[in-house]
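Appendix B: complex inputs.
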Amino acid sequence: MDQSIDVANITGKAMKFGDAMNTDIIIPSKYLEFKDPNDYCKYVMAAVRPSTWQEIQDQGPTIFVGGEDFGSGSSREQAPDAIIYAGVGAVVAESFATIFFRNCVNVGLPLLQIDSVTSEVSECDELRVNLEEGTLENLTTGKTLHGKPLEGFLLDKMRMGGLIPELQQYVKDNQLD
Amino acid sequence: MPAQTISEKILTRQSIDDREVLAGDRVDVRPNSVLSNEMLPMVSMAKFYRTGAKRVNPEIAENMLIILDHGGFGTTDNMVNFHEMTRRFVKEQNLQLDDAGSGISHVVFHEKGFAQPGYLTLGTDSHTVTHGAFNSFAKGIGGSDLVELMVKGTTWLDVPYTNKVQVEGNLPENVYSKDLLLFVNGEKKMTWSTDRAIEWTGSTINNLSMEARLTMSNMAVEQGGVAGIMPYDAKTETYLNTVPGGMRGIPTESDPDAEYAETFEVDASTLSPMVAKPHSPDNVSPVSEIGEVELDQVFIGSCTNARIEDLEIMAKIFKGNKVKSRTIVIPGSSAVGLEAAKRGYVEIFMQAGATWSYSTCGACYGGSLGRVGPGMTALSTTNRNFIGRMGGDESSQVYLSSPATAAASAIAGKIIEAEHLPQYV
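Resulting structure:
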């Protein structure tokens, strides 16, 4: 959304998913033709949980918690965009697919890798994510989980809200406009 | 200088500051060639303008090929608009376009000579890894990454560690590179090569045709791989002698003492025809063990298995037979389609009762021409069978196989090994 992100303090209610949530599940190709993420985000994760978008609207700020290989498959960056526009503040998963990980940084979707996170978080737990520390505080259980902190290089991009704001600066600095 | 893998050598060569790199390094690179498709109008164009930039970086413009493949001729009003937006952008920025109908990007791209040994190729599609069959480092990127390339001419990459697959022995009759690939998928699963490159090596790989190698590199991403790299040899050279501009790259080998994260050895002579069962390309089983699976539809096409050799294999099986299941055959490109027509394959397919189409991705990603509905069972020569990918929902059962298994199964109306087709001699 090209907006700066407070990467040290992202809060929301947990919504849990399993392993191998590929991009065809996150957002099926037929909805990408809507082009506007405000439209296609309504179908986010609908393949495995049809009410996902409505549930997020009802409960407010949400954090997705997933198992292994979150985001495998297609290179479509509409997948992280669909998650952001649906109202999700961050994705915490046990592992991420390579292209999806980079797309999240590029579009400004905070993400954190934590081993066995799915066994430490229950549905609707109140969570706080700190990308600088690489931590997930489970405010419901009082337990803090430690994951892999995002490196400075990627964190800086995330703070700016993704790649496009950075490129806007590059275009100005190099007088390409 | 420390020993290097193919990936490390290519990324060293393409680093913008001539830096020797090894796995684990991060490097700014300039790609040799760039691929795009409908991701350009759907995502990248608007973001490009939002950066304030006016012109696509001239080196990128020169080395980028845009192929409209996912949306057919324009199967919906929105897709027609996306295609027209692309044409206008191509004209405005003086880019190179293969318009809808000319073929699937990962076939047209190498037919037009954009895939070369030693190249760094980046493309807005996860199956860009296909071009690793030409001994290149070819990787899928997102739509914003393409914007970075269009604005700056460069981007950053993490130099990957490499998994090696060593394959020795002769593939048995009716067993193809797709079966070999599916076997490895089943053994190693989709996360095996996450963040890593894959190098394929061994006598079996050397004996494979370019088409067969392309099938395997195409599905490197189904093992999580950021690249799926094949050796360069006389077959690569012979193919490249047929493309515009000929051979322009630098054949690249790993050093003998290069370090691999993991090596997986396969004895090809022990393999049999394989299928991936719903709903994942790593849910693999020998055809002989899946029992009775009746088919509503067979889909033959995609950047995985719709090149001329694939159609040749199927034509031999279809000849003189009739299909029992609804069957759709889509050539990988218009050039493949023309060659199939010249060789009489189109006549064979149509006389067998299959539907022959212009070239496009079709139902592979659920776009058009052969989508499945809820409750339907299909066999497909494509690369992914995720829930809903070819249309439908969790109740739609999609299996993946080689062209030989798909053709024989279309005739039998159920999934069988080609050698069990009674009429097949």
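The interface with chain B takes residues 2, 20, 22, 24-25, 28-30, 32-35, 47-48, 68-69, 72-78, 95-99, 102-103, 106-107, 153, 162-164, 167-168, 170-172, 176-177 of chain A (CB under 8 Å).
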